[in-house]
Structure formats: structure tokens, C-alpha cells
Amino acid sequence: MATVSQAEETVCRQRGDSENPQLSKDGDIMLGGMFSFHSTWKDRQDTYMHKPLPTECTSLLFREFQLAQAMLFAIEEINNSTELLPGILLGYRIYDVCGSIARGVRAALALANGNEVVSASSEAPCTRPAQVQAIMGETASSLSMAIATVIGPFHIPLISHFATCACLSDKTKYPSFLRTISSDYYQSRALAQLVKHFGWTWVGAIRTNDDYGNNGMATFTETAQQLGICLEYSVSAFTTDPPDKIHKIMEIIKASTSKVIVAFISPSDMDVVIHALSQHNLTGYQWVGSEAWILDSQTAAMDRHHILDGAIGLAIPRAHVSGMREFMLDVKPLNSSSNYIFTEFWEALFSCKFKQSKSSAGNQKECTGHEDLTGVQNSFTDMSLMPIFNNIYKGVYAVAHALHSILNCNKTCNNTAQLDPFMILQHIRKIRFKTKEGDEVYFNEKGDPAAKYEIINWQPKENSIVDFVTVGFHDASLPADKQLNLQNKSIIWAQNSKHVPLSVCSEKCPPGTRKVLQKGKPVCCYDCLKCAEGEISNITDSITCVRCHPEFWSNERRAACVNKEAEFLSYEEIMGALLTAASLFGTCITAVVAIIFFRYRQTPIVRANNSELSFLLLFSLTLCFLCSLTFIGRPSEWSCMLRHTAFSITFVLCISCVLGKTIVVLMAFRATLPGSNVMKWFGPAQQKLSVLGFTLIQVIICILWLTISPPFPFKNFKKFKDKIILECALGSAVGFWAVLGYIGLLAILCFILAFLARKLPDNFNEAKFITFSMLIFCAVWITFIPAYVSSPGKFSVAVEIFAILASSFGLLICIFIPKCYIILLKPEKNTKKSLMGKGAPKSL
User: Fold this and answer.
1) Which range scores top for mean pLDDT: 9-18, 390-399, 600-609?
2) Which of 332, 519, 528, 555 could form a Cys-Cys staple with 509, CB 3.0–4.6 A?
3) Half-sphere exposure of 579 (CA within 13 A, CB side)
């Protein structure tokens, strides 16, 4: 505003039109104020042929008058105080910046440099003290940024009551900026937490196209992404936007699937949006609002179609300043002032016209200047913005406390002290005091106060009145999990619903499923795929499925791991019971045969067939039948070692007895030949020793097997996915195949010898029956191998038991049943003559 002339460098001359304050009062110390008494201005098309006319402001705002009065109330209260700045009178210069950045900068320079007109003949020094020691304002963030940039180099404190842009916390750019309202950094994060709390992960966003809206929405978007919230769209709006842009915004909202809209927008821009929404009949959306409009009664009054009913959002905590309401409603001091803006304000307030007014026309009544405000209902009489008024009140008091400290005020103040805005700024940053209402005022290192918010819910009442109900609080100073505190109050949602609306791109994935992102869409849009077998997810919206431990398997819903069914051949099941019965039946039959043989042990047929070997064979067959029982039941360390060793030793004992009987038959035939004394080499003692020797070899093999690598219980997870096969691992495969091979070797040897003796000319040739028994034995065990390998789980054990029982029954039936038949049913053949009778040999 004041520049140095090139001709006379030591003389300052004012260039351009002077800027005059709309409200002013002289005092010992001056404070500045900047408010947008008008919301816009008239555009002029300059021809550049003459000097442009001053900006003409339009659209009077009562809200800004209320803010200015809050400043005046604080100044008057301080001037009347005997405790704070006694003997010091505060004055003010308040400018109307009309929401214009250019006008705001001019007003800021006027407050910094002074605005008195200097005559051409006088000389004024270029260096002078600042006109004001601090400035209150501005309401908008963009204006505050411009003003703070201009006055920053002068270090004049600028204290805003409503500029919330987080960018203003940057002290490198705005060193002298402070505010009594929380930064949008905290509000944006709080809004994201609020949205997350209600489970809304798919939302739309609309913002004011300025620093307030753009920066606030940027922080909200960043926090929302961290919390798993997706924005379907994010659009910007501004008061001066052309209709086609507003129409495009409406089309985007109409085409969206999200039912929640987060509005980080100023009241004036919100009015434009509400008007467009009502024209397009777009209702039923759940609105989430920032502090700029959520407590604004004018915005509520504009919502005649109840579009915003049920809106929820953050607001500055409610406040009460005693005496402020009465001061604001006492407008007579304004009437008595000489401020030229009074005429326009008074006419708008009382809906009348002064005679001398340029706009006096129409049917409006004439203003007298003594109108009574009682009964007037408009935004000026509405005190819903008291929290913002309180912010201005606290800002003025912050300056007063800093001045009180600098001037060393006690009962009186040091009037001779030289004031410096930089010194005042330093003291304001350090002050900490409580207002008369108990509010604590202080600034952090960024010039911001503590971030605390109320959660407001728009609840419609009768006669289209909206009740702003506090339903919770948010305190950014608390731990993250305790910052949001919702009270047990009933919240009214969009369309007067009592239930929280749903706004998600995809429904939650229940336990047992996992999220799979949809190609080309945000992370909130996904499909739910059921977990594979053996995998589970036990939480909602799981992104992965976890594989169960090998001993567990997933349940039907894939939501939990359950113990796999342990499968083994048990006595309780039908197959196990039948095999047990067959084993016991075979044992009983063997015992009956043994009893018969013992009862008729002196008969020729028993004596002729080596009764000792017969009884030993019957004993070994009994053990064979009983050893099959060791294969039934849950495998244990002892049962695994017992089943294989008992099976192998008893079968070798059995085959050794059969082999002995076969050799006896052959030797007996040889002994009938003239001159043969072969029987003396294979008498009863040799027979017993041969059986013992053959068996001892198997015992040695089993001992080596059990010593080196014995069988052990094993849980097989591979054969079945959902079952555990409890089986006995072989330990050493060589040991297993060694005992089986030895049994097979003896069986083949026995079969060969019996086959050779099958046509011996005795009436009762036992070799035939041994041949049959060995044939059955070998056939059973040869077919056992592929059946055992191909049988799943417990069936492989059943196959092994069946092979043991089948081969044992084969030996029992083929060798002993014919003898029992003769003993019991054909006793006439049980004679020495019948047995020794020579007959023609019969083919097998």
C-alpha cells in the first residue's frame, strides 16, 4: 500500500485507493479484524480505458456480523475489566473482505501500514510502527493463507477462528498464523474413523474446490485408505461453478452405488449442492459432514426437501459465553455508530428501507433506526454458531493476556513499553490461561489448539425444524482406540430410519471364505471364494485361508479345523467284529480238533500221522488264529512289534510242522523199500529238532528286525485328506520282507515235497491233503500282495487278517478235517489194516 517514490526515496506516498474499515474504534492498542460481511462481489468487465472502480460487494451475511460482534464483545469486556490490561483501552479496525483474496490482501496491508491520506506537500517517514498489534480472522482457509502470506514478514499475529486447513500449520510458510479451531488434519482423520465405525467402506465424497476442501479431503482419503475405506467418486464444487458442472456432479451421484456421501464443504457451497440435489430429486443418501456446515442453521433452513435429514458429522464443541448473546442482540450501538455499512445491515435485519437509501423502492416499510429486535427471527438472532463466537472470544483474550504480560500489568500497565508484533507473537505462543467459562486456551508448536469435536446428528422435528443432537465426542489427544466415543443415544439416519444404513461395494465375506479382488476395481470390491478343503478362515473378510495342521481337517463351513477321524480296524465295527469272530471260531475249531485227536490218540489214524507233530501243528494253528487279533484295535508300539513277529513266528512254526509231516510221509515210503534205514535219520527227535531249527531261524530274523529298526505306530496323512490312518510302519522293510520270504521259502519247499509224495500208494496218503493245503496257502499269500497294496486305510489290515485266517483255515481243513471225518463218522476205516492196505494209486 505504501511504496517508496523513485524521485524522493525518503518520502512515502500512497498509491491507489485507500481502504477504509467498515467498523472502527480508537484505542491505546489497536486490533485488526477481517470478516466477509458479504459472500461475493460483482464482476466488472474492465475496458482498461480508465481506472477500475472499487470492488462492489453483494449478498450480505449475518453470520459474519455475528463474528464481528463476538470480537467487539471480547474487546468491550476487556476494556471494562480491572484485572486484565487495567488502564489500557483496546481499539479496533474491522474490514469487510467480501470473500475476495485480492480485497483481503489489500485490507491486510492497510492494517499493517496504516491508511491515512498523505498530502503531496508533506513528508512521511517510510518506517513506522504497525497500525495494529494483532489481527482476528479470516473465516475461510484460502483467504487466511493469502493474508498470512502477506503479513508473515511483518510478524503480525493472525488468529483465525475458523480456518481449519492443515496446510496453515506449516510455520515455514505462515510463521505468524495461529488459530483457535482445530486443524483439519485431525478432523479429516476423525471423519474417516467415524465412517469406519459404522461399517461404511464404499462412500462418495464432495468437497469445496479451495484449500479447505482439497486439503481436508486429501487427508480424509489417505486415512480412509489406511482404514480400508474406498471412495467411489470424489468431486469438487464451488459457489461460482457453472450449471453444467453442477449437473455433472448430480449425474455422478445418481449413477453411484454408494449410499454415504462425505461432504468436506463450506456452507455457501453446500447451499448450491442442496439446491441441485432437490432439483434432481436425489434423496435417501446418508450425509457425513465437516464442522463447516454440520451446525449451520442456514444450511438446515435451505434444506426444504429434507435431503440432509439424519446427517452426522463433526462440530466444534458446544460453548457458552455469558453475556455474549445479549450483547449481540443489542444492535443500538451499531445504529449510533458512524459506520456506513450500518444502513445495509439495518435494512436487511428489519426488512425496511431508509429514505436516503439508494435502494429505497418497492413496498417495503420505512426504517426509523429505532426498530426493536424482539420478535425478529432470522440468522442474526440464531446463536447456533456460539462455538465459533467463542473461538473469536478466546483469540482476543489470547492477545490481551500476551499484552498483559509484555506490559507488566499489575494494578496498572507500563504505558511506556514499546510494543512489537513479533514480541506479541512470541508471548501468544507461550500463553496458557482459562476463560471465565473454564475453557483452557493454549497453542502448540504449530499454533493449533487441542483437537476435540462433538458428533452431531441432524434429527428432524415438527414444522421442518432440525434439532442438532450431540451423540458422541472425538478427542484426538487420547489413544487411537479411545478417541471416538459414541453415547447411547438413538441416532436418526437418512429417511428417518432407525437402522444404520449399509454402504459397501461388496458384502462382508463370512468365515470360511476369503476375499478375491475384482479386476480393475478398488480393494473394497471383491468376491468371496470358499476356502479349499483342509483350509479355513475363522474371521470375517479374511484375505487368506490358513491350512489346517496335518492332524486336523476343515469342517463343512471351512470356518474351523476339527480333529481328523482316526481310522483303524476296531473291534466295535462290523468288519472288525466279523474278523474277530472268524479268528475265535478258527481257534475253537482247532481246539475241538485237538480234543478229538487227544481223545482218539491211541487210534491208528492219529498214531500213523505222527501225533506229536499233529498236536504241535494244532497248537501253532491256534496261535495263527489268535495272532490275527493283534492286527485289530488302535496300533501301539507294543502291538505293532507283536503283530508282525507273532504272525511270522507262528506261521513258520506251522509250516515247519507241515514240512516235518511231509518229510515223514516221504521217509516212511522210503523205509518200506528193501534195505532202507532212512527212518533212523528222521525219527521223532529229528523231527522235533527240525521244527525247532526252522522256527529258530525266524526268531533270529525277528530279533534282528526288532533290534535294528522295529515296526512302530504311524499316522498316515497321505492316503486320505480328511482322515488319519493309524497303521504300523514296518520300520525296516528288509526285515519285513525277510520274514515273509522265509515263510514263503518254507511253504514252497513243503508244497514241492508234498506234490512229490501225492501218489504214494497208501490208502490214506496225507501228502495229498498237505499238497492241497500248501496250494491254498500259496494262492492266498500270492493274491494277498496286490490286494494289500491296493486296499485303502483299514481295509489293508483287514486283507492281511483275511490272508492269515484263510491260510490257517486252509491248513486246518485240508490236513485235519479228513482225519476227523474218519475218526467220527467212518470208524471202520480207522484201523491199521485199512490204513496199511495197498491200493492202486489215484491221480490227484
Assistant:
1) 390-399
2) 528
3) 27
Q: Are 399 and 176 in contact (CB under 8 A)?
A: no
Find the farthest-apart pair of alpha carbons in the chain and give their distance in angstroms, rounded.
Answer: 172
Specify the CATH number for the domain of residue 719: 1.20.1070.10
DSSP class of residue 337? S
Domain shared by 624 and 527, yes or no: no
CA distance 801 to 375: 106
Nearest Cα residue to 55 out of 47, 46, 66, 43 = 43
State the DSSP string of 554-594.
E-TTSSSEEEPEEE---SSSHHHHHHHHHHHHHHHHHHHHH
Examine the domain organization and report whether 739 and 755 are in the same domain.
yes
Decide if 21 contacts 48 (C-beta within 8 A): no
**Angle CA(98)–CA(191)–CA(291) in degrees, nearest 5?**
30
C-alpha cell at 68: 464481528
- Same domain membership, residue 171 and residue 30: yes
Angle at 721 between CA 716 and CA 724, to 5 degrees: 35
Q: What is the pLDDT of residue 761?
A: 57
DSSP run (H or E) holding 440 = strand 440-442
Whether 643 is in a domain gets the answer yes
Q: pTM for the full model?
A: 0.64
Backbone angles phi, psi at 294, to 5 degrees: -65, -25
Q: Among the three residues 765, 783, 807, which one is the final residue of a domain in this structure?
A: 765
387 and 431 in a single domain? The answer is yes
- pLDDT one-digit tens code per residue, 691-704: 888 889 888 988 89
Same domain, 224 and 152: no
Q: Distances in Å between the alpha carbon of 707 and those of 496, 618, 656, 828? A: 83, 30, 25, 55
- Provide the H-helix boundaries in 672-793: 684-708, 733-756, 766-790
pLDDT on residue 843: 41
Q: CA 322 to CA 42: how far, in whole Å? A: 39
At 91-112, the pLDDT tens digits run: 999 999 988 888 899 899 989 8
- Joined grid coordinates for residue 391: 473461538
How far does Cα 8 stand from its chain's mean position?
72
Query: Is position 810 within any domain?
Result: no
Distance (Å, whole) CA 113 – CA 137 = 18
Q: What are the E-state strand segments in 46-201? A: 57-60, 90-96, 134-136, 158-160, 177-179
Q: Give the three cell numbers for residue 254.
A: 445418481
**Which residues are CB-contacts of 368 (< 8 A; sequence separation ≥ 6)?**
none
Q: If 0-12 CB within 10 Å is exposed, 13-18 middle and 19+ buried, where does residue 197 land?
A: middle
Residues 252, 233: contact at Cβ < 8 Å? yes
Is 386 inside any structural domain?
yes
94-108, 117-131, 339-353, 375-389: the lowest-pLDDT one = 117-131
pLDDT tens for 248-274 read 999 999 999 999 999 999 988 999 999
Same-domain status, 191 and 240: yes
Ranges assigned E (strand) in 5-153: 12-14, 23-25, 29-35, 38-41, 57-60, 90-96, 134-136
Cell of 278: 432437490
Please report whether residue 453 resides in a domain.
no
Instruction: Write out the residue range of the structural domain in which residue 176 sits.
Output: 2-42+58-181+322-331+373-442
| Rounded-to-integer distance, Cα 634 and Cα 778, Å | 29
Judgement on whether residues 175 and 275 belong to the same structural domain of the protein: no
Structural domain count of the chain:
4
What CATH number has the domain bearing residue 171? 3.40.50.2300
Phi, psi (degrees; rounded to nearest 5) at 586: -60, -40
Contact 154, 421 (CB under 8 A): yes
Q: 560 Cβ partners below 8 Å, 6+ apart?
A: 536, 538, 554
Which is it for the CA torsion 195, 201, 205, 210, positive or negative?
A: positive
